[in-house]
Design brief:
5 helices; single chain; globular; mainly beta; 4-stranded antiparallel β-sheet; 5-stranded mixed β-sheet
Length: 485
């Protein structure tokens, strides 16, 4: 069991379990408080399927990359393992598509210690993964995150042990894949009008479990190890009333840290497989664009290629199939773009937490059910009593009527079931709310529907136990401990 972690004020706000993702950057300039976790963040890779290449290496046949063959199934033929796959986490599955947005395949995504995986960062050959797994408070809010190393079949082989006072954020593999770089946020740090969070960059050596702090002050995030024992990262500079995020570089020991001539930026990605840096420019200064270039050009401050793009916030990110095909992921859609034209190749809404490009999917378990159902957007149905299933599906249908068909997806997350009589559900359609249901006289009914803290008068009316709602508020919004057994 994970240790109890003291919460900062900002982390006490319930965050819905319907979009469990690794927390991304929080910036003064954007003024965004994200209550839902976008069922989150991209992974990287390239596909190299060639038996001839690996035959000389003496690898067993089942460990060689697939070559994108067509496997006959009865009278039909289904394409599997077709080259590089762009993947994302959606409805407790790993879903992958090809560079044209086609050949959509679902893979099983196992739970770890009974908890869902929120984010995956694969190694270069996609045979190892860094997994982010959230654990929750009783009211469904995320308390903190655990990190694990998974093998090619997404089985945990190592748990990363961190001081519980830190919240892990961005992670990446070192070049030799013997360690990982990550951002750790002090859970006691606060973001105010004049200061940003205290987040710093660390290196975790897998063999020795040694954690080394690299950048010791300020707000520094998104580390990538690059050539010549250097790290590319993003750093917050208080150069004006709002502050600015700038692409920066330093040595792997933290010395000679300096900003590069690019910014302000919202986010950036370094694709090691093609040695290219992609910078998502600040929408206030660039009106939505992506600049990109080879790492050497970026380090020398050369002018980069720029395309217009539908950038909306720092939660957007990109991943590259190759030098000519880029995937842009936003909160509401995923778009595949041609480079250098920026022309749209494919666009779709039914995506999820971005994982990125995998070099191989041959070790993953293909899901038995490939067709996505409407009620897949209700997570946690496996832990509710049978008679609640048709009831909550009907509630989902009613709730969905009020959501725009082309807007944010409707999601329900069942986060707590107590004695098969009391159930907490997070609902999302653009914004989130928490709803509590009770069973009275063998019938389910909606008891409380609120965005944050329920009133004690309603909690006591239905005798909702403290196990489901530990605290409530009086008419003056003062918090009171719930004493219902």
């Amino acid at each position: 069991m994970d240790e109890q972690i003291p919460l900062s004020k900002e982390s006490q706000t319930p965050i819905p379990t319907t979009s469990l993702v690794n927390p991304l950057r929080s910036r003064n300039k954007i003024k965004i408080i994200v209550l839902t976790l976008l069922a989150i963040v991209f992974a990287y890779g390239v596909y190299f399927g060639a038996d001839l290449y690996y035959g000389f290496g003496g690898l067993p046949k089942d460990e060689r990359p697939e070559t994108g063959v067509i496997i006959p199934i009865g009278k039909q033929q289904t394409a599997v393992h077709v080259g590089k796959q762009y993947c994302f986490i959606r409805h407790s599955n790993l879903v992958c598509i090809d560079a044209k947005g086609q050949n959509r395949i679902r893979y099983d995504l196992p739970t770890i210690e009974g908890r869902e995986i929120a984010d995956l960062v694969p190694s270069a050959d996609s045979k190892s993964f860094i997994a982010t797994v959230p654990y929750l408070n009783t009211n469904g809010a995320i308390k903190n995150y655990s990190l694990y190393i998974l093998n090619s079949k997404l089985q945990p082989i190592k748990k990363i042990t961190l001081d519980p006072k830190y919240t892990p954020e961005d992670q990446s593999w070192s070049i030799d894949e013997k360690s990982i770089f990550l951002t750790l946020r002090d859970t006691n740090s606060q973001q105010t009008e004049n200061t940003n969070f205290s987040r710093n960059i660390y290196r975790y050596t897998l063999a020795t479990d040694k954690l080394q702090q690299i950048k010791a002050s300020g707000d520094n995030i998104t580390p990538y190890e690059i050539q010549d024992e250097k790290i590319l990262y993003s750093s917050y500079y208080k150069s004006d009333p709002n502050g600015t995020w700038l692409l920066s570089v330093m040595n792997t020991d933290g010395t000679f840290a300096q900003p590069l001539q690019y910014g302000p930026e919202l986010n950036f990605v370094y694709e090691r497989s093609i040695d290219t840096v992609y910078i998502l420019n600040d929408i206030l200064s660039e009106k939505g664009s992506i600049s990109y270039g080879k790492l050497a050009d970026v380090l020398e401050g050369k002018k980069l290629h720029t395309i217009k793009a539908s950038i909306s916030s720092a939660y957007n990110t990109v991943s590259a199939f190759d030098e000519k095909t880029l995937v842009l992921s936003t909160e509401h859609f995923t778009e595949i773009l041609d480079l250098p034209s920026g022309k749209n190749i494919a666009k779709f809404n039914k995506a999820g937490t971005p994982v990125g490009i995998l070099t191989t999917t041959q070790y993953l378990a293909k899901s038995k059910e490939q067709q996505e159902g409407k009620y897949d957007s209700i997570t946690g149905l496996n832990k509710v009593p049978p008679d609640f299933v048709p009831y909550i599906k009907a509630e989902y249908d009613k709730f969905a009527v009020g959501c725009k068909p082309d807007g944010p997806e409707v999601k329900f997350g069942i986060f707590k079931v107590v004695r098969d009589r009391y159930i907490g559900v997070v609902k999302r359609c653009g914004k989130s709310s928490i709803t509590y249901y009770v069973k009275q006289k063998d019938k389910w009914k909606l008891a409380i529907a609120q965005e944050l803290w329920p009133y004690c008068i309603d909690v006591n009316k239905y005798a909702i136990p403290k196990e489901l709602i530990p605290e409530c508020v009086d008419t003056n919004k003062n918090k009171i401990i719930n004493t219902n057994p």
